[in-house]
Amino acid sequence: MKLFPSMVVGLGLAVSSAAAAPEYFPRDLGTLGGTNAFATGLNDLSQVVGWSLDGAGRTQAFVWAGGTLTNLPNFPGGSNGIATAINNAGEITGYADVSGTNHHAFLYVSNSLLDLGTFGGPLSAGYAINEHREATGLAYLPPETQPWLQTFWWRTNDLIAIPPFRGFVHSCEGYGINDSGSICGTTFLYSPNGHNWAYVWRDTNSNSVADEGEMLPLGSLGVYASNGDYSEAKAINNLGQIVGWTGITNNWSPKHAFLITPSNGTWKLPNDTWQSGYLDPTNLLMRDLGTLDGRTNNSFANAINERAWIVGTSTTSSKTNQAFLWREGGMTNLNHLIAADTGWVLTNATGINEYNEIVGSGLYNGQPRAFIL
Question: What is the DSSP letter of 209?
Fold first, then answer.
């Protein structure tokens, strides 16, 4: 729950000492009978989605609204599910068991669970949904097919595959989609060198088909090496701003949260990724957001709103994970924006809406719980 100045006064807290006053108050979303719960996203109506263990230890998708935690249905033959995103119409995407260990992406609309299917393989998962009921995620192809895993773009009852970058043998996953249908995620490039990079994809010719050349790898802040130039995009807002994480050296660690703000219609400078036979990771538009505690620690950005407020998680020198809020001017530990006696340790922030409400997970009196601020 966000505390506005008038509310702070009403709680008997001095507005003049704003530096010491809590900016947020965490609320426990409860569980579905088990010990754990994790929030993954929210909309502008303060409706929250995620997953919780039930009394039998099964993973159950939930939606939280108005103080009530509701278990979403499972597919016939399945017993587990995870909800990942919700739009302002209350439409939800995620994934749920269909049989055994296989799970499919779903769309939950009008109290009904719609199976989004796969590209012929055993698995799929939905990770993001926009206000036009377009979703993205990942879906498997048959085992003998290359590439075997691709991003999907689901719209008007059609599961559309996002094609490879320049025809390289690779796989890719979609994690974010905005209201223009722009998708971001990560693409695994196995040739000519093995890397995984953040990307943005747009239907540039508006033909509702994923055409070759519409995917733009976004590079990284690491140097071009076997272990350094890695990145992953997690969310994109309606201004086209993208957040995620990137390697910053020629090693797998550390990783830092990044922000890309597009300039003159591109998300990468130089925007010609293919340079003399290799993939150039250089991106002058990729901004290192730092960490909560020094360059050698890790940070990961998960979500961004239209004000470019960004949330995620960061490690500290004590090797603990702490949820953060980034605003222009720097990164703040969310635990420093709540009162010290709440019983909470906020470890990961996963969503932020246009009213600056934040959801995520942490420890509440020592138990893993989902929160809304």
Answer: S
DSSP string over 73-91: P--TT---EEEEEE-TT--
Alpha-carbon span 140 to 148, nearest angstrom: 6
How is residue 365 written in tokens?
Answer: 């009196």
DSSP 259-276: EE--BTTBSSSS---EET
- Would strands 27-28 and 367-372 be described as parallel, antiparallel, or unpaired? antiparallel
pLDDT digits (tens, 9 = 90+) for 266-317: 999 887 666 555 667 888 999 999 999 888 889 999 999 999 999 999 998 8
Distance CA(205)–CA(182), nearest Å, equals: 12
Taken in order 139, 45, 63, 347, the sign of the CA dihedral is: positive
Question: What gap in Å lies between CA 277 and CA 126, rounded to an integer?
Answer: 34
How many Å apart are CA 118 and CA 241, to the nearest integer?
29
The Cα angle at residue 336 between residues 334 and 341, in degrees rounded to 5: 110
C-alpha 369, offset from chain centre: 18
In whole angstroms, what is the distance from residue 191 CA to residue 188 CA? 9
Six token digits for residue 372: 């809304």
Convert the pLDDT of each residue in 322-372 to its tens digit. 999 999 999 999 999 999 999 999 999 999 999 999 999 999 999 999 999
Residue 16 dihedral angles phi and psi, to the nearest 5°: -65, -20
pTM to 2 decimals?
Answer: 0.91
Provide the b/e sequence for 25-36 (b: ≥16 CB within 10 Å): bbbbbebbebeb
Helix, coil or strand: residue 166: helix
The conformational region for residue 306 under phi > 0 = left, psi -120 to 50 = alpha, else beta, is alpha
Q: In angstroms, how far apart are the furthest CA atoms of the chain?
A: 65
Cite the beta strand spans of 33-122 per DSSP E: 33-42, 48-54, 59-65, 68-71, 81-86, 92-99, 102-109, 112-117
